[in-house]
Amino acid sequence: MPSSHLSHWGLLVTGDPLIYGADASIILASVGIVFVLTYFKKWKWLWKEWLTTVDHKRIGIMYLIAAVLMLFRAGTDALLMRTQLALPNEHFLGPSHYDQIFTTHGTVMIFFMAMPFIFALMNIAVPLQIGARDVAFPYLNAVSFWLFFFGAMLLNISFVIGGSPAAGWTSYAPLAGLHFSPGPGENFYLLALQITGIGSIATGINFLATIFKMRAPGMTLMKMPLFTWSIVATNILIIFAFPALAVALALLLIDRIAGAHFFTIHAGGLPMMYINMFWIWGHPEVYIVILPAFGVFSEVVATFSRKTIFGYKAMVSSLLLISVASYFVWAHHFFTMGGGVSVNSFFAVASMLIGIPTGVKVFNWMFTMYRGRIRMKMPMLWTIAFIPCFVLGGATGMMLAVAPADYQYHNSYFLVAHFHEMLIGGVVFGMFAALYYWWPKMFGFLLDEKWGRWAFWLWNIGFYVCFEPQYALGLMGMQRRMYTYPAGMGWTALNFISTIGAFLMGLGFIFMVWDIVYSIFKGERDLTGDPWDGRTLEWSLPSPAPHYNFAVIPTITDRDQWWTLKEQGRQDTLRPQTEDIKPIHMPKNSAKPFLIGIAFFTAGFGFVFGWYVFGAIALFGVVVLLLARSFEYHSDYHIPVDEVIHTETALGRL
Amino acid sequence: MLYSLSPDQEIIINFLYFCRDGRRAGSIFENRRRLQVAHFWKDERREKGVVAMKAGKVRRRTLTYAGLGAVAAALLTGCGSQFQVLDPAGPVARTELNMIDISIVLLLIVIVPVIGLLIYIVYRYRDKPGNTAPYDPHFADSKVMEFIWWGIPILIVAILGTLTVRTTISLAQPPGNTSSVQPLTIEVTSLDWKWLFQYPNGKFATVNYAEIPVGVPVQFILTSNAPMNSFWVPRLGGQEYTMPGMALRLWLQANQVGDYYGHGANFTGRGFAHTTFHVIAAPMAKFDQWVKHVKSTAPALTPTGYKNLAIPNIVGEMTFSSYPANSFYNTVMNDGGRFMPSTVQEEASLHH
Question: Which chain B residues have a beta carbon less than 8 Å from that of A349?
Fold first, then answer.
């Protein structure tokens, strides 16, 4: 059914059965949620335990749920796109609709799937790994989450109210400027990302402060687990990169709503400066999402090979080298923009150099497995699948770094295949490995292996079937971001095969969801807290960990402290002794982060449609909430010793 | 029953022993004996498994070579005109394809051992009962291995980097010898959603197609009067962006007669999928004939007509015998050219 004509009835988008279907689903889902909460009388529980929590473990779970939902959302976008591209000259999606879909696919996957996934892992694992009770700024942690959540809501509501952005996830000026993209769509993009970006910067500061200042006594930096090191590198990148994005988005927004000329064609604007600023953020961003995956792989490989990670020092230095080097390669995203010989040469060589520490890590992981005893559990399967995928993707990355060759690859399906190989084969596989790995610690039961394997094989086969043909399509001259293509170019067969692969991955996702549902009812319960025979501190706690994490903060003497203690038969030294327990200082829950999120959402919504007074009032609400927090003197409490003893005894630890 | 290793298995294993034990490693004979004794105590099922693995390895190795051979054949022969990037019709595309081939070869040096090593390691060190492979839970350091896997990639990057820089520099120059062959200049303006080609020498213009003589270096001077697009003719060479307010130069040359597919390669909105054009390469005589034909029969492009080209729509091919004077230069200036004096100077110098 042709959908070339998306129009509006007031704010609501009309003209397409897919949109109406989405409207219906949103309404039904909302009604369903309200009904379930009311029927089971869970409103108070929701408010007390989740909406106002400042506990990093809860916040991590919320990030995780959001990431998985957004994976579904953007994955559906992908299936729609691939359906449209399965055959030439299709009319399933018109150009406007297709453009909106590929834009939201990229935007949601990067900002609202990959970022929350890594924030989830940071929250779930880092404080437990370093022996801390929570992050340095728990209230700010909650603010970060709700800013992310409401930023995601703002962008996601756009396709039924107002229209989605349609200038690509990179949103280049001048296409994304007011003249070429009239309407609210692009404003949704700019405001939603701005809001979530504030949360990201706050998370960066939060976790660096946590890792630098709140490690257990005796845990020097060189005794930290490699996942925590990867988070150090990631957060350094976040702090220095996200401001560039914030500025780029803000200037473009000012162009659009105030008629400025930073990036317009006329009156002195320089569109290419938007592109430079965007990618100064954009390249560190892809390292922001991959470094935590590297951290996860280091943990998983060591644990499931029953062996010390090979070359710890080299792993740390390569993480830091990659972080630093990632700031020097951004122009490889636009070799063809006429930067000139010196510019292209510098960035080409720099981009090749950054591949070296990355490759070193692969060797280190393999030599960790060498002379180990490899257990093929789900986290390890995902890790082993990641290696060939990432090596291939990295190799094509090196090919892309050859600037003269890039003149032929740029913006073709060769590029699309490369970055999907890195993002899916690297980031997504890493996130799945982490999901299976830390799931027992979060929820107290394991995810079923059998259904997990079904999901695993579908995802892997689907990935290769979908994306390897796209390398060939690029070499056949097919450009990206085209809503259709002509017959007779020889592109049809490979596009069709690619679509099959995409649906296989979708099936893999469904199996994963089924795995989760099945395991909730039938999954093996984790009774010891250490289902994988782990090496790091989080496995010394019960699953799920108690509210305050550690009853007594442990003293650390070795890297992989938990493993060392097990080797020496001294695990019990980490059990709390009654006489060592003191009242535990904890932060109180707070409604303000949730309310700040709502205020930002309202302000953003107002500015999208140009309702400036409305938006300003909502921003004033943010200020009021900030002030209220500043004058809040009793934001903490102490857990009495009795309660701690009671909890620890119930967990069988005393 | 003593199980013996193939020579290359032996070499790898001895090398690894050497890496771990250094000079203390046993002689080749001692290591062979150690391995034979270890294998002697396997059970039959395991032996069958290893033999199968070896057969599998041989099969995989054969397949790998076959696969590599196919890939090489495809890359080197171009595998038909459908793989446009692999089927160059001119020196620029040829140079770029050479870089593609070199990079693939250099990267295979890394990829093949890595994947092979992964398969080997995952099979040999599985936590299966009865696995007699050495288990060394604290083996976490080897200066020799570090040297190899930092050193070889650095070497590869040095080679690839040098070649890249040299090629980048050379592609900024005309592809042929411009002292013997007069280069042709074509001014390209990308619009929504069409391509305007202006020939400053002949002062005529075309839309959505261009004709060039075979064997002559052509400099395309690129700009945009709309969001930035990218000018790409895969069989003639790589692309370059068309930037509003700038005039960028792209050298291309066709060495074969043909009709070459071209397309915009940077998203410009709703009509982007239809920003197709083509470049026809004809022998010099035919090209001159075509120019004469255009100048004598085609309608003029009036200032109004020029303005109308900027209306966002999709049109077919058009030919014009003349166009408004200085329209390209004016377009560049209007779109911000005064901020890019160097490129505009170059462009002004082309108006001979």
Answer: 157, 161, 164-165
| Residue ranges per structural domain of chain B | 42-132+140-171, 184-349
Burial tier of A472 (Cβ tally within 10 Å: 0-12, 13-18, 19+): buried
Nearest CA in chain B to A412: B265
Q: Does B70 touch chain A (CB under 8 A)?
A: no
Nearest to A200 by CA among A247, A240, A153, A158: A240
Identify all chain B residues contacting A486, using CB atoms and an 8 Å cutoff.
276
Q: What is chain B's length?
A: 352
Q: List chain B residues with CB under 8 Å of A262.
A: none
Global pTM reads: 0.89
Decide if pLDDT at A7 tops 80: no
DSSP B43: -
Contacts with B114 from chain A: Cβ below 8 Å: 362-363, 366, 387, 391
Percentage of chain A modeled with pLDDT above 90: 93
pLDDT digit string (tens) for B60-98?
554 445 455 445 544 444 445 689 999 999 999 999 999
DSSP-assigned letter for residue A481: S
CB contact under 8 A, B118 and A388: yes
Q: Which DSSP category does A114 fall into?
A: I
User: Which site among A371, A373, A412, A560 would you substitute to test the B interface, given the most B Cβ atoms closer than 10 Å to its Cβ?
Assistant: A371
Residue A55 to residue A567: CA distance in whole angstroms: 32
B93: which 2 tokens?
């595309």
ipTM: 0.92
Superfamily per CATH, domain B184-349: Cupredoxins -  blue copper proteins (2.60.40.420)
| pLDDT tens profile A166-198 | 999 999 999 999 999 998 999 999 999 999 999
